[in-house]
Records
---
Amino acid sequence: MKSGDFNNDGISDLAVTIETPYYGINMLVGNANKSFQTQIMTQLSYIRGFMASGDFNHDSNLDLVAPDGGLSVLLGTGNGSFQNLVSYATDYFIIVVCTADFNNDGKLDLAISKWRCSSYCVSVLLGNGDGTFQPEVNYSSSSNLNYMISDDFNNDGKKDLVIVCDGNRSVNILLGNGNGTFMTPKLIVTADNSEFVISGDFNHDGNLDLAAAHIVPCVIGVLLGYGNGHFSNESLYSTETVTNSMITGDFNMDGNLDFAVSYINTNEMGLFIGNAVVSNLKAEFN
């Protein structure tokens, strides 16, 4: 699931992967009243894992990259639909994709994780700025990855990676060097039940924070960022439901970040605006 303004109307939309009745992406176009319009559907031959979004060809429209065993690049038209699907084959099954400008050349790049890779690969594909990418460069991690995000967590102008390892479900940070390479991973959360992680400035201090979804118990752990790549201890908030995806956005346009989650083993989503979870978070951070 990815949020963004895919139809250029100034309101956040949701792109959601589906597996029935076919593999594909459903675009839920957002309304100003916090509801969503009729779905725009894009069918794929296969999809499994976590997408990335960004303007990969510099046409001011949001595009998507979806893991379909390899990679499928879907160029946005600016109305919530996509065209010119381009596929990339890889040597291992891809489950996580995230995007950022890792080498500071003004073009969006991709970081991907490969499932059951013999060397536990994290790979970077540098973008050409036209919707295509250079051959992947492989890096090793201590474990297969369950999830991965990118942002500048130490305020040095270089994009970093935060990863959730599959083996021990810990959360780690890899500080970026600004040339497409990364420093040695550093442990952030030692808990063995982390599933997903998102970032945002939840307390309006100008530093990026983290929210990690845990599965036993079903909680969201919030870690406030210090702006130097280090974080506070977790503050835990019960969700009472196991999630298999989580995103953040200002869905009710009140200036504070909200959470949207999808639930494991169901076809349901939850939009947490002004309920107990998000209200508690806002009270804590304000």
---
Amino acid sequence: MPYEVLIGSEGFGKVRGVWEDLQTTSAAHVFQTYGFAEAWLATAGTATRSTPVIARYESAGRTVGLFPACITHHGRVPLLTWLAGPYVLDYGDVLFDADASDIGVDEFVAGALAAIRPHARLAPLYLTNVRSDALAFEALGQSLRVYKTSAAPFVDTTGPFDDYLASRSRGLRRSVRKKHATLSNSGEIRFAMWDAGHPGYEAVLHELLERKLNRFRMLDPSSGAFSDGWLDFRTRQALTEPSTRLAVLTAGDRIVASQMVCEYRNRLYLLVSSFDPEFEHVSPGFLLDYHSIAYSFEHGLEQCDFCWGTEAHKYHWADADVALTTFVSDDLSGRALTAVAGLRRMLTSPRTDSGDSR
């Protein structure tokens, strides 16, 4: 079968053109874009000694499928996982143009797995956060074991915003009004989306990421979510990945809260957020969610996506979610990984199933 496996940074660079073409024809999320993967590989990927392992499939002389994987390291443990995984990738999937391919996506995924597995050596296959509607979901479920499950809440933002707001509880609507009234004592409230060219963008970005990093180091010092290079990765993503923005909530001349988001394919992905502790009494994250959802409605987007993680605050706004599955290889290395992870969970304090650590 016409599969080619490309290894390392050189192989990653070779597929740039076809990868960016597939982004436009494949049902991919922002996490499958070349720009997202490139930002990670140049920073956190390098810090964790990660090596791209990409399976490419051609049909009639044209690249129609990419399986973007890498060998990375969690401590000393090697993992064969999605490129940009396993901690910052909210959704893992392949890129595949079904209309141009001579085979179906299930056959493509099976062939790609067979092509890349020999390059993993003893590393277990560990594919995180595969949506139940992902291109690769069915095929991965046929050959791999389920390791754990989670979900990603979202708000359908088609239709009038007023109708959506009316569907929320009376208590939530009252809370929005009350918190806005309290915040307005500090000045006029404004919400804006900043792109990388906005004055002050880099300063706000740096403060956002530092606050987030410090907060989670305090809450869970043992978490691997902030691997080496995380701060550099998020900074590079925000400065180079074209769909990334900063959602900024201000009161007067004070920045109350901010959030990294991606506006991609009629969807607003809510990623990393933080707030000024002086405004904690008005629940700035709650208000930021409100304004991000309103923005999605007002700008004709289809979804406001809270991404990976089942934190309760997301379900104040979202009535729907999509299931996420993490798969592990059904072999000796996969079973060993599962056993070690289970033992570690028994020996450490419970952690929330949260995408907020991203």
